[in-house]
# Entry
Amino acid sequence: MTGGPGKAAHLMDMNTPSPALSGLEPLISVDELSDYLGIPVRTIYDWRLTGHGPRGLRVGRHLKFAVSDVAAWIDAQREASAPGDLPGA
# Structure
């Protein structure tokens, strides 16, 4: 399920459709993560092999990502690349 730009803009403000699921954290697919980050799906799978991407989980044969794990991974990327966070800076 791929879409145009903004397809995964709901990443930080997802609403679950059913009241019965309101206590569960939203999950996004590889395609949604790819659209959100603006990178190829293949890159996400490569990151999983090398341990560089956000934590994922398998639901059957489908790879999913918890919104909080993606947000935490993005924050970690920002912190690691901030000039004041570099050793000796």
About this structure: The mean pLDDT is 80.
